[in-house]
Amino acid sequence: MAKFQHKNDHHTTPRCYLKNFSDDGTFIYRKLKQKKDFGKENLDLEKPLSLKSATVNDNFYTVKKSNEPMVVETIFYDFEVENHYEKLYKKLICEDSEIIITIEERTRLLMFLLSLHCRTPKQFDLFFKNIPKELEHEMDIIKEEYKAGHIGKTLIEFTKKHEYKIFKVAKLSDSSEFLTSDNPFLIVDETGHLKNMDFREQFNEENKFIIPIDNKRCIIMTNANDKNGIPISGKVFYNKIERMNVDCNFAQFINFLTIESAEKQIFGSEKYLKTFFSFVKI
User: Fold this and answer.
1) 222 conformational bin, left if phi > 0, alpha if psi -120 to 50, beta if neither
2) Residues 236-270, buried b or exposed e (16+ Cβ, 10 A)?
3) What is the pTM of this model?
4) Domains of the chain: which residue ranges?
5) 115 contacts 162 by C-beta, under 8 angstroms
6) d(CA 71, CA 87)
7) From what superkingdom does this record's organism come (predicted)?
């Protein structure tokens, strides 16, 4: 018998992440990427959406044939991933330039950030599109197995590939803001092009990752070299959090990548979201 209470509403982008883009921690403003999404044409910016219902997908992670159907939604995401994010977030936004994270904190932060990519419906669909044609008759079984498989296979491999990347927190020094979306993890190549739509690119060690974490900050995950210019990958973990200031030009670049990456919804503060989309049409 299952030990955990069944939940129908599964957040494919977690509330603990989205609330840092909210004006009040309860509601969040959104822009629909397609005007007719959800049958609310032209009403998307008029009133905020409750964080309780933002990015909700009915039984998205429920493992139907498991003795514990909530193994993904509750045991893994609620307890092992999201439960630790608030403490990690406070370290990320701390202004102390000497602050470091422990190996355990580094692992949990890496798992949380990378799961923002792996857990979304958009990335699930990309995986299914890579299934060989000769296995398409098994698609229903594959889709059910991938609910747990995206953790045991995709996320674990994803984490191992990038466990030596360093963390940089970029903070805006002006009045501009970062937006986020229902597909918030940005994979960027050396030329600055978004690579999110290629399922294999998440395993490319040369790519860097950019993840807005609130209205004023984003994390940049990159490879690094030691003082002699030798890559540290595979040799040493760098647990200091680097910090840098950026301006509206950087914010605009990241926000356009965010819009490109989004599946259905773009999120942000009321004032900035409305101002931004009064100039930018999608």
Assistant:
1) beta
2) eeeeebebeebeeebbeebbebbbbbbbbbbbbbb
3) 0.92
4) 9-279
5) no
6) 23
7) Bacteria
